[in-house]
Amino acid sequence: MEATSRNDVRAALRACRLWRTATDDAIAVLAASASVQDAARGRLLATEGEPAERFGVVVSGRVRVFHMTADGRTIVMETMEHGEAFAAVATLAGGRNPASVDAATPATIAWISGESLFELLAAEPQIARGLIGDLSERLINLTSVVQTLALDVPGRLARYLFQRSLAVGEATADGLRVSLGMPKAELAASLGTVPETLSRALGRLRDDGVLEVRGSEVIVFDVGALARLGSGYGE
Amino acid sequence: MEATSRNDVRAALRACRLWRTATDDAIAVLAASASVQDAARGRLLATEGEPAERFGVVVSGRVRVFHMTADGRTIVMETMEHGEAFAAVATLAGGRNPASVDAATPATIAWISGESLFELLAAEPQIARGLIGDLSERLINLTSVVQTLALDVPGRLARYLFQRSLAVGEATADGLRVSLGMPKAELAASLGTVPETLSRALGRLRDDGVLEVRGSEVIVFDVGALARLGSGYGE
DNA sequence: ACGTCGGCTTGACGCGCGTCAAGGACGAGA
DNA sequence: TCTCGTCCTTGACGCGCGTCAAGCCGACGT
Description:
Chain A contains nine helices and twelve strands.
């Protein structure tokens, strides 16, 4: 990982949708108050149940917001990249973290105190609307996580692949080339399952002629089938 | 159900946490702009996927925010009572409803257009903070729904009973008397399962000496056991 | 009292998926 | 080239829970 400058931090804060409409001056103040942390892969950044006095903005890398069940499995609720904030909700509500956060890749985090955010809100009230919009979207996303959990594993996989086809799919002579975006073991965890089951689900989609697996990417032949399976109207 | 007056509507809006700090005048304006609907039990109030131009505040009765899976099961994400708003998030974000809403009991709803809310926000910017706090709390609640879905059915049941013991439990000579709060079939749906499985789960808690079932209420002998099972550290 | 109807319970069964265990496949290092 | 080590795959098995199909019980109406 390369060294992280104050500029990178400012860029990340500028990109953050929470205060979309804040002035550059206000961002500079926020950046000055931030404390920066470099975290290795797997490093725990926030712990479920702890009081949240500050929140993080991802400067680089990727972090996972997750819940760990008693038997050690993890459910990934969100993943955050450059310019996205985590643990902000609990900080805003003045409560405890409802979930844990760790680094999915080596990551750099800018920590902002709840106080700083409220000062920003007082100084520039117009940002409230952006904040409200962002929270609303997060709520909608989480709703879709709940719905996803109602699907079986092939359904969840199809939903993921479908969304990813739209986002990063590349048309080729064979079909739509889509990278999985992470190691299969990690993908399995994101889908709330284990590598063995993911492997079988991929195998089944292959046998059904929907796609072909090539290492860490897949060639999708039938996007419609993915959409159907992923919306719960499969078979 | 008794007739609903404009006063009831105003009282419900006053109780709504979205605009906790709004002035009474502003509430009156909002109430005047609201359209009131009486809904029979089971009446669909909002449909997943539809654009949300307005949102509802519950004046009386109880509504369920839920997702229906392709095979017809429902997952209940939230239930709302007097003074609580639904479909507000999608309206604020200018998007589509992420879930459906129906009346769990006969209910009276005050519908507010997104426009009215934004006018209120413009007129009284101080309410933004309350709105942000409310959205944050909703986000936290929904996080706990996700966690709950990771539990098995006895765990979800125990979690529900534990929370309800704290909320409405009444100490008696035998133990803590707790009403289930709804018919068992409805409770089963709320827990994301079916009556048969709920029945078995209750039977198992009974056999383990944790509680005793009496019609639509239970006598809890061992609250600690409920807490343990409901937090995922059961057995 | 007697039907009967809706809500609840119980048993039998099948399917999905998590677990355990045993192989591949592939790259890194000597 | 051989040997690890890591990641992925495959098979066998058990458990939880949804489904189907009977019963059971209390609440009604006439």
